[in-house]
């Protein structure tokens, strides 16, 4: 089983006003078949934590490991999906999805076959030759997800990928993410500002404190697995337990924001 971990990770930025601790002694593990979601107020270090796991930056102290080996930079074993889809508008959908494979020297026939495969997985088959400006925002996020999947990484790291979508599209994308997770068995780390989204998607939910960000609570949740087992998403959202957890976390985060 693949495992991506942070161990007592602290990040301190040097600013004109002196050192700023963004993240303090954060520890977590993401394993195959799990969705770990980080939730907290703006500025609590969620994006910094994702950057550490992705290898975009190194911790000031502590460590990040993938299958027990130190993470020293980005790697194809960790696919990243950004809030801004970061697609190339001069390329069509198929070529956007296959771009990373192209940079790794994969031939056109093989990369087009792989791109078409993951486009079917995210339900965009038939749109391979559309330009980026010809598809909707939700479809662009699906292209970004397909691009991250193209290299068949063990882990998907997702930085508020649904934040810019309208409510209906966001709900459809949440279901799609669960479908992709169920179909691939990958480990997922996702950050979000949406409490409802976090409760729905997480198999483990991490609550981060206001800056400096610390993991102050961990919740094991089963709503994503209930969906994977066949329970309708509407039934899950209407479960009193789902509502109770949502309201408990909302009250907590509002209180912490007011006290910060």
Please, could you describe this protein's structure?
By secondary structure, the chain is an alpha/beta fold. The chain folds into two domains: 3-77 and 153-259, Rossmann fold, CATH 3.40.50; 89-152, no CATH class. Helices cover 40% and strands 25% of the residues. The chain has ten helices and ten strands. It has helices at residues 46-54, 93-97, 99-103, 108-121, 137-150, 167-184, 195-201, 223-228, 233-237, 240-259, and strands spanning 3-15, 18-31, 35-39, 61-66, 69-70, 78-81, 155-159, 187-192, 204-208, 215-220. The strands form two sheets. A six-stranded mixed sheet has the order 6-7-8-3-9-10, with helices on both faces. A four-stranded antiparallel sheet has the order 2-1-4-5, covered by helices on one side. α6 links the parallel β7 and β8. α4 crosses α5 (137-150). The longest helix has 20 residues, at 240-259. It is globular, with a radius of gyration of 18 Å. The protein starts with a strand and ends with a helix. The model has no long low-confidence stretch (mean pLDDT 92).
């Amino acid at each position: 089983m693949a495992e991506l971990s942070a161990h007592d990770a602290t990040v301190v930025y040097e600013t004109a006003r002196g050192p700023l601790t963004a993240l303090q002694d954060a520890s977590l593990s993401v394993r195959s078949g799990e969705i770990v979601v980080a939730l907290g107020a703006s500025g609590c270090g969620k994006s910094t934590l994702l950057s550490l796991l992705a290898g975009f930056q190194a911790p000031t102290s502590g460590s990040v490991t993938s299958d027990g080996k130190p993470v020293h930079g980005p790697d194809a074993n960790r696919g990243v999906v950004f809030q801004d889809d970061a697609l190339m508008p001069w390329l069509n959908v198929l070529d956007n999805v296959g771009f990373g494979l192209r940079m790794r020297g994969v031939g056109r026939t093989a990369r087009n076959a792989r791109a078409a495969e993951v486009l079917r997985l995210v339900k965009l088959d038939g749109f391979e030759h559309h330009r980026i400006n010809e598809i909707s925002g939700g479809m662009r996020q699906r292209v970004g997800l397909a691009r991250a999947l193209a290299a068949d990484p063990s882990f998907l790291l997702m930085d508020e990928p649904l934040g810019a979508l309208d409510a209906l599209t966001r709900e459809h994308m949440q279901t799609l993410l669960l479908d992709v997770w169920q179909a691939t068995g990958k480990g997922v780390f996702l950050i979000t500002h949406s409490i409802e989204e976090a409760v729905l998607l997480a198999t483990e939910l991490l609550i981060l404190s206001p800056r400096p960000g610390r993991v102050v609570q961990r919740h094991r949740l089963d709503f994503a697995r209930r969906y994977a087992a066949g329970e309708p998403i509407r039934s899950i959202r209407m479960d009193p337990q789902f509502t109770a957890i949502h309201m408990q976390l909302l009250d907590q985060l509002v209180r912490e924001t007011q006290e910060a």
